[in-house]
Amino acid sequence: MKQKRIRLFIDKRTSAGQREKIIYLAIEKGCNTLVLSMDDKYFEGKNEDYKYIKLINNNALFIEAGGHNLRMLLPRKKYFFQRDLFRMDQGRRKTDHHFCPTNPRTISIVSENAEQLFSRVLEKVTTPRIFHLLPDKNHENTWCSCPACRAFTPPEQYLMILNTASDALAKLDNEARIIYLVFDKDPQAQGIIPRKNLIASKKLT
Predict the structure, then answer these.
(1) Which SS3 state, helix, strand or coil, does residue 177 take?
(2) Is residue 46 included in any domain, yes or no?
(3) What whole-number distance in Å separates Cα of residue 190 and Cα of residue 187?
(4) What pLDDT tens digit does each residue of the chain (205 aa) get?
(5) Is residue 86 a part of any domain in this protein?
(6) Cis omega before residue 104 (within 30°)?
(7) 94 φ, ψ (degrees, to nearest 5)
(8) Could you give the number of structural domains in the chain?
(9) Most exposed among 59, 78, 109, 185, judged by the fewest C-beta atoms under 10 Å?
(10) Is residue 43 part of a domain?
């Protein structure tokens, strides 16, 4: 029987000292899983002497990767040369939130970056591996309104990107899964079919 994972999301800006205190309290409350951003210092592999890492190892905590990491799939610096990769709002391209998922070039870059990100953290994520790819906080429905994207709702645009990322993950580990958030009332009404390695959730758990 698989052990239920009780999760704690840790902000990458949290110091090593703060992490030790937070993790200790979380363990007392029954937490057995830590979710760390894919660009978290934990995955650098140079901090093994930190007390919080020893606390993780001594308590055999599960490690998952992700959070509000969706924006990491398309570097904002590309905006200066390829604005059509990014979302359109009232006729203008913007870098603030998300991308243009109907642009084939966007999908190609997202696929490449997703594979690199997953590869970077794969060894330190507990099997069966779980990842989280969440849109920008408080901007879950802020997506593209270009002529091609207007045919798709924000949840459908989100799923287009998730499907691309999940395909990249499957190449590395076909048993791994991505948990994503459902923001509309009826997820079955979405026109985009999620890949089999995607798990829908209505809250962060």
Answers:
(1) strand
(2) no
(3) 6
(4) 478 999 999 999 999 999 999 999 999 999 999 999 999 999 987 767 789 999 999 999 999 999 999 999 998 888 788 898 999 998 899 988 899 999 999 999 999 999 999 999 999 999 999 999 999 888 888 999 999 999 999 999 999 999 999 999 999 999 999 999 887 655 555 678 899 999 998 776 5
(5) yes
(6) no
(7) -135, 150
(8) 1
(9) 185
(10) no
